């Protein structure tokens, strides 16, 4: 999501671009088109491309988080944490793609019990994912602590470093793994579910920007993100509900009530995810999480809304069966 947080450092930001180089707007458009094409194409093409794309995305997001922690004076075990995140993401993808396949109905006394079994399997998969996550987190903490023991007393805050390594997993990687839960549901991979989520988040962002620019007067969180207003949030909420209704043309089997609840979750938690990352950046004194996408900042800047939306949607999906 876009972030209107102004620079924290005193470095000049209005230096003219070198002659002959592309303007910042042109860079934003070019990289925005490339990023959107890669995102939508990977989700649409196959479960494999979806998994590989978001495994890479969450790993870069976590790396950017650790980079910001280092800017704040901490020293998390970056590669240990990134490796752990890839294990968690891979195991989650494995559990939904290959464990307990749901394509073939099961029968008892000649009667199909497909729906009951698939609902049970979803709970079972989530339990398996939670167990693996806790084991990997435990080993991450142990390995990180061993690293701190080896570097003491060069590192003055060893337990804070271990906490930063674990915090990145729980703030970034585990929520991003829940994309797999959304994508597969109870009946296998369906790219339309991820498309719907993307459209809702983009609607929230675009609606908030348009309404905030036009009507914005009352600041939502001026000490964290001065550009955000309550009028902008209201505009984003309305736009998200409209898109929530419209995605019924793409997902006709999804009831209207479910679509509107999902839209409401996005409208509330997407801006909070953006604010949370803005607070993080202000706390460590950086403007952008990274520079992987020129003109757009880092991937954590782009996907910050997902980090609070996905846990809520995954829980609601589990409860709704």
From TrEMBL:
Keywords: Cell membrane, Lipid biosynthesis, Lipid metabolism, Membrane, Nucleotidyltransferase, Phospholipid biosynthesis, Phospholipid metabolism, Transferase, Transmembrane, Transmembrane helix. It is found in: Cell membrane. It comes from the Bacteria. Its EC number is 2.7.7.41. It is an enzyme of class 2 (transferase). The chain crosses the membrane at residues 50-66, 78-100, 126-146, 158-185, 191-211, 232-250, 303-320. This is Phosphatidate cytidylyltransferase. The lineage of its organism: Bacteria, Pseudomonadati, Bacteroidota, Cytophagia, Cytophagales.
């Amino acid at each position: 999501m876009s972030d209107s947080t102004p620079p924290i450092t005193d470095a000049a930001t209005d230096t003219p671009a070198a002659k002959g180089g592309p303007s910042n707007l042109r860079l934003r458009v070019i990289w925005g088109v490339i990023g959107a094409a890669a995102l939508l194409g990977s989700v649409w093409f196959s479960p494999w491309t979806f998994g590989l794309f978001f495994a890479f995305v969450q790993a870069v997001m976590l790396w950017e988080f650790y980079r910001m922690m280092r800017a704040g004076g901490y020293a998390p075990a970056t590669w240990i944490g990134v490796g752990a995140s890839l294990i968690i993401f891979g195991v989650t993808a494995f559990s939904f793609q290959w464990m307990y396949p749901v394509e073939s109905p099961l029968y008892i006394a000649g009667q199909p019990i497909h729906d009951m079994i698939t609902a049970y399997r979803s709970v079972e998969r989530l339990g398996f994912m939670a167990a693996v996550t806790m084991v990997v987190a435990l080993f991450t903490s142990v390995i990180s602590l061993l690293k701190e023991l080896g570097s003491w007393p060069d590192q003055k805050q060893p337990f804070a470093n271990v906490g930063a390594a674990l915090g990145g997993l729980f703030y970034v990687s585990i929520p991003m793994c829940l994309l797999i839960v959304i994508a597969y549901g109870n009946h296998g991979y369906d790219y339309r579910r991820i498309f719907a989520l993307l459209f809702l988040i983009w609607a929230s962002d675009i609606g908030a920007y348009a309404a905030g620019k036009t009507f914005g007067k009352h600041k939502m969180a001026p000490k964290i993100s001065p550009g955000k207003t309550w009028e902008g949030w209201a505009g984003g909420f309305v736009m998200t509900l409209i898109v929530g209704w419209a995605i019924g043309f793409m997902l006709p089997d999804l009831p209207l009530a479910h679509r509107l609840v999902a839209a409401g979750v996005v409208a509330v938690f997407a801006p909070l995810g953006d604010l949370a990352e803005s607070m993080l950046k202000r706390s460590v004194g950086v403007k952008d999480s990274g520079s992987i996408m020129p003109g757009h900042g880092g991937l954590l800047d782009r996907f910050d809304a997902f980090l609070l939306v996905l846990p809520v949607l995954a829980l609601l999906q589990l409860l709704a069966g």
